[in-house]
Amino acid sequence: MTIETQLHSFIRGQLGWNGDPVELTDETQLIQGGILDSLRLLELVAFLQREYAFEVKDIDLVLDNFATITALAGYVRRSTSDPSDTQVT
């Protein structure tokens, strides 16, 4: 299961989003679209920390990281990447 799929499932299931499933795409605006309010954002942060075993730092709580499912998945990938995997040229 991809990170995007897990995020879709969490938003629909655990956060109780009951909008049209077709309307929730990887590019749907989560905060500006009213899907994530402050309480749901905290629930999402707890899910990310539990599911992906990393700490969401206060400095990372910015719109760019939480705007869409695509942005969230990118943030998770960056936060959980192994620094030893990077190649130096």
Q: Can you characterise this structure?
A:
- With 89 residues, the protein is an all-alpha fold.
- The chain has one domain (3-14, 24-81): Non-ribosomal Peptide Synthetase Peptidyl Carrier Protein, Chain A, CATH 1.10.1200.10.
- The chain contains four helices and no strands.
- It has helices at 3-13, 38-52, 63-66, 69-80.
- The longest helix is centred in the middle third of the chain and has 15 residues, at 38-52.
- It is globular.
- The N and C termini lie far apart (32 Å).
Radius of gyration: 13 Å
Structural class by secondary-structure content? mainly alpha
CATH topology: Non-ribosomal Peptide Synthetase Peptidyl Carrier Protein, Chain A
How many separate structural domains?
1
Q: Strand percentage, roughly?
A: under 5%
Q: Which ranges are low-confidence, i.e. pLDDT below 50, for 5 or more consecutive residues?
A: 83-89
Write out the CATH superfamily name: ACP-like
Number of extended strands: 0
What is the overall number of helices? 4
Mean pLDDT: 87
The succession of helices and strands, N to C, reads HHHH
The gross shape turns out to be globular
Instruction: Note the gap between the termini.
Output: 32 Å
Name the helicity range.
Answer: 40-55%
Name of the top-level CATH class: Mainly Alpha
Q: Could you give a short account of the major beta sheet?
A: none
CATH architecture name:
Orthogonal Bundle
